[in-house]
Amino acid sequence: MAIFVYQSVLLSFAVLLFIKLLLSRTKDNNKKKLPPGPPALPLIGHLHLFKKPLHQTLASISEKYGPATFLKFGSRNVLVISSRSLAEQCFTTNDMAFANRAHLPSVKQISFDYNHIGAANYGPHWRNVRQIAATELLSAQRLHASSDVRVREVLDMARRLFCSWNASAGSMGLSYFEKVDLKAKIFGLSLNVLMTMIAGKRFYGDNIEDLEEMKKFREAVEEFFSLAGANAEDFLPILKFLGMAKAAKKLNHLAELNKEMTQKLIDDHRKPGAQKKGTMIANMLELQKENPEKYNDTIIQLIAVSLFQAGTDTSSNTVEWAITLLLNNPDVLKKASAEIDAHVGTKRLVQESDMPNLPYLHCILNEVLRLYPAGPLLVPHESRESVSIGGYEIPQGTMLLVNVYHIHRDPSLWDEPTKFMPERFESDNADANKMIPFGMGRRRCPGEGLAIRVVGLILGTFIQCFDWKRIGDELIDTSEGSGLSLPKAVPLEAMYRPRQVMMDVLSTL
Questions:
Q1: Which of 209, 215, 306, 312 is the most buried (most CB within 10 A)?
Q2: For residues 236 and 18, what is the distance between their CA atoms, to the nearest angstrom?
Q3: Cα 489 to Cα 71: distance, rounded to the nearest angstrom
Q4: Quick one: which of 358, 365, 251 has its CA closest to 315?
Q5: In which element (H, E) is residue 358 found?
Q6: CB-based contacts of 127: which residues, under 8 Å, 6+ apart?
Q7: Burial code of 378-415, b = ≥16 C-beta within 10 A, e = fewer?
Q8: Is residue 22 domain-resident?
Q9: Chain-wide mean pLDDT for the chain?
Q10: pLDDT tens sequence across 93-134
Q11: Predicted pLDDT at 6
Q12: Residues 445, 306: contact at Cβ < 8 Å?
């Protein structure tokens, strides 16, 4: 009983202290010309307004209050930007002011104490790890050198799809369509591509070296994406005090698992006789010999985890949305197939080097990224100092959310903004320059080049090799899920069969 009374008194004191701090901050903010926003409740601010997916909720608020909206997530100040022109102000004129990241408590451990590429504040450490990643994996030279890895993985996926169809088709031949869970297939392929480039190992398919290890790693990556995103305990610290910070506990467990498994990948490269040449880890271990401090094991670990977290779910979601839109718009699919046949032919599989000769495929990718950007709110920034945006005064320490999803559907920028229309990008690059799916400024995603190559190659191969159709007559559901990225609410399933003109090529894979 005494313990209960003590906890109640302590809780009451914490709440009163929290209210005092909140009122003090509110008083200070009222002296400034802040952007408009809906009325806030004590303690929780505007958290009661939110429904998933968050980008749609914020878009609705912006429609009512304007392109610059000031909100309170608990005690945290939040600026929501929903116009292209204001986003440019944030990331060009005031790029340095918004160069920091918003450090959410629930992801502290999973981001190596906010030290991985996406979470680190602007400064020497961030410049170091970003430069290493850009040089050792994401530079044009490295991407060209690793092209065979991506082609090999995509080819293996095409082979496995063909073999699965061939085993089931029997006497029905090309009249038979096989059902496939594309979400699972594409996620596995994206993970294989990154894992092979980074560590020379595979998660899915044949020739898995250590099934238990790969299963453990794969489940960790999948669970991260299911938990990723803003959590209530990030903005209401009292939930942690009350033992309700469930997401943080799971993410902390995942953080330890990631450290353990990435260290094992490094140790495997050090084993005598290890044949791991050309991987990112192998390259960095060579550099470690010359500069052990700059390329220590922790740096290698956090760069590897950064790339897994940033590059897997985003690429697989983009391909899944692309195929969804193509199946709902068969004329576009037919036009893309004809372009590949004309420029690549049917005697070999499409290669990354073919991409510059496939402009309509690029139009499709642009339109998919416009409608369903992989990061609908970008990764949250935070103001390092007070700054003026759109005539408003934004306090230091304000979290910045840029609603790319809303900007990409802004009717003042786009004709028929909700319509899937790749042709809008055929005339010139003016429309493409309106888009910001990879962010802007110094914190722009360094993996953009890799993402475009991976998504383009997967989509081009799927279009070239197979006929696709919906499972039923109804259009595929395009409801959006929630999370750090932009998943489909309903995982994509579809029907496929080999294209007759590609049977000879597929039969020899």
A1: 312
A2: 10
A3: 27
A4: 365
A5: none
A6: none
A7: bbbbbbbeebebbebebbeebbbbbbbbbbbebeebbe
A8: no
A9: 88
A10: 999 999 999 998 878 888 899 998 999 999 999 999 999 998
A11: 40
A12: no
What lies within 8 Å, CB to CB, of 361 at 6+ separation is: 336, 339, 340, 355, 456, 459, 460, 463
> Using H for helix, E for strand and C for coil, what is the string for 363-383?
HHHHHHHHHCCCCCCCCCEEC
What pLDDT shows up at residue 246? 65
Residue type, 228: A
Residue at 1 is within a domain: no
Report helix angle 280-290 to 246-270, nearest 10. Answer: 70
- The 8-class DSSP code of residue 212 comes to H
The pLDDT score that the predictor gives to residue 357 is 96
160: domain range?
Answer: 32-507
DSSP string for residues in 79-99 = EEE-SHHHHHIIIIITTTTT-
C-alpha–C-alpha distance, residues 493 and 475, integer Å: 12
192 CB contacts (<8 Å, ≥6 apart)?
153, 156, 202, 203, 204, 205
The amino acid occupying position 380 is P
CA 97 to the chain's CA centroid? 24
Nearest by Cα to 66 from 395, 399, 390: 390
327, β-bridge pairs: none
Q: For residue 12, is it within any domain?
A: no
Which residue has 């991409």 as its token pair? Answer: 355
Cα torsion at 22, 23, 27, 32 (round to 10°)?
A: 30
What is the number of structural domains in the chain?
1
How many Cα neighbours within 13 Å face the side chain of 9? 6
For tokens 């353990």, what's the residue? 260
β partners of residue 509: none
State how far the Cα of 258 lies from the Cα of 109, in Å rounded to an integer: 10
CA angle 416-371-379, nearest 5°?
135
- CA 21 to CA 384: how far, in whole Å? 20
pTM of the model: 0.90
Write out the E strands in 324-439. Answer: 381-382, 387-389, 392-394, 399-402
pLDDT value at residue 52: 85
Check residue 67 and report its DSSP letter. Answer: S
Indicate whether 8 belongs to any domain: no
Query: Could you tell me the CATH number of the domain that includes residue 415?
Result: 1.10.630.10
